UniProtKB/TrEMBL annotation:
Segments crossing the lipid bilayer: none
UniProt-listed CDD domains: IGPS
Record has Transmembrane as a keyword: no
UniProt GO MF annotations: anthranilate synthase activity; indole-3-glycerol-phosphate synthase activity; phosphoribosylanthranilate isomerase activity
Entry EC number(s): 4.1.1.48, 4.1.3.27
Keywords from the UniProt entry: Amino-acid biosynthesis, Aromatic amino acid biosynthesis, Decarboxylase, Glutamine amidotransferase, Lyase, Multifunctional enzyme, Tryptophan biosynthesis
Pathway the protein contributes to: Amino-acid biosynthesis; L-tryptophan biosynthesis; L-tryptophan from chorismate: step 1/5; Amino-acid biosynthesis; L-tryptophan biosynthesis; L-tryptophan from chorismate: step 4/5
Protein name: Multifunctional tryptophan biosynthesis protein
Enzyme class: lyase
UniProt source species: Dichomitus squalens
GO biological process per UniProt: L-tryptophan biosynthetic process
Catalyzed reactions per annotation: chorismate + L-glutamine = anthranilate + pyruvate + L-glutamate + H(+); 1-(2-carboxyphenylamino)-1-deoxy-D-ribulose 5-phosphate + H(+) = (1S,2R)-1-C-(indol-3-yl)glycerol 3-phosphate + CO2 + H2O
């Protein structure tokens, strides 16, 4: 990842996370049992659990049959974050995922970064195991990570992810195209995250079918809910699922996005802090009978 272009400036949070994750991945790749060739061997043995495809899953939710347009929920397991510190450090991710799934979430997003978000691959694996009991209508599992290499994608697939996050701001166009293609080769349509028109153009150039616009600027933490609204026109005539990510706090945010043609919302902190998760999801999405 290129630094912020000025060696005299302190690194941004995204640059710090990226540097730490590089060290973490190097350590995992050097550890007997989790070396890249071992992960590949497990995948080739068919040990990764079966996938469900992301796009059809995102096009289905409790209001699909009745409401037009309808909007899907990507519900996040988020123990902590760099901007807010601890949010729900002691959450049981499997139980939380079941609550999300039973309330109608199409995707469960699991932050697996340990240092700032207190997440892990074990959290994601437990989420997958818990929702497997729901059968083929289960939500898809998203590995929410800072991905820069094939290893992290292979690891995600082995541990039960149906999709992975690719953050355009972290990757060169060559890396983005390569990792997008690699994820597809494992059967996973990635969620490609952008924050401005230039990044949206890059996501569309590699053929992304699911694009998330992050309302949070990952360099300075500022949240601008208009970021997603400002990019809707770039995908209006395309076969792209457009998702609004970050900062969503209540039904008014969701209603506006739905009117503007946004297809899904990804919600973390406000879901983790909700006293009654199911009631909050009902209120947020206004799904009939959900
Ligand atoms: O949440 C942060 O503080 C953060 C900081 C730096 C990089 C990524 C960050 N969050 C990851 C996410 O994308 C959010 O967890 C996700 O969009 C949900 O956001 P929210 O609903 O605002 O919790």
């Amino acid at each position: 990842m290129s630094a912020n272009g000025d060696a005299t400036k302190p690194p941004t949070i995204l640059e710090k996370i990226y540097a730490q994750r590089q060290q973490d991945v190097e350590a995992a790749e050097a550890t007997p049992g989790t070396r890249p060739e071992e992960i590949d061997a497990y995948l080739q043995m068919g040990l990764a659990p079966p996938l469900i495809p992301l796009v059809p899953r995102l096009r289905t939710n409790p209001s699909t049959a009745t409401a037009s347009p309808s909007l899907s929920l990507m519900a996040e397991i988020k123990r902590a974050s760099p901007s807010k510190g601890d949010i729900a450090p002691h959450v049981n991710p499997a139980r939380q995922a079941l609550l999300y799934a039973q309330a109608g979430a199409s995707v469960i997003s699991v932050l697996t970064e340990p240092t700032w978000f207190k997440g892990s691959l074990l959290d994601m694996r437990l989420v997958r195991q818990a929702i497997d009991a729901l059968g083929p209508a289960r939500p898809a599992v998203l590995r929410k990570e800072f991905i820069f290499c094939e290893y992290q994608i292979a690891e995600a697939r082995l541990h039960g992810a149906d999709t992975v996050l690719l953050i355009v701001a972290m990757l060169t166009q060559e890396q983005l195209a390569r990792l997008y293609a690699y994820s597809l080769s494992l059967g996973m349509e990635p969620l490609v995250e952008v924050n401005n028109a230039r990044e949206m153009t890059r996501a569309l150039e590699v053929g992304a079918k699911v694009v998330g616009v992050n309302n949070r600027n990952l360099h300075d933490f500022s949240v601008d809910m208009g970021t997603t609204s400002g990019l809707v026109d770039m995908v209006r005539e395309r076969d792209v699922v457009l998702c609004a990510l970050s900062g969503i706090q209540g039904p008014e945010d969701v209603r506006l996005y739905k009117e503007q043609g946004v297809n899904a919302v990804l919600v973390g902190e406000s879901l983790m802090r909700a006293k009654d998760t199911t009631a909050f999801i009902r209120e947020l999405l206004a799904w009939p009978g959900a």
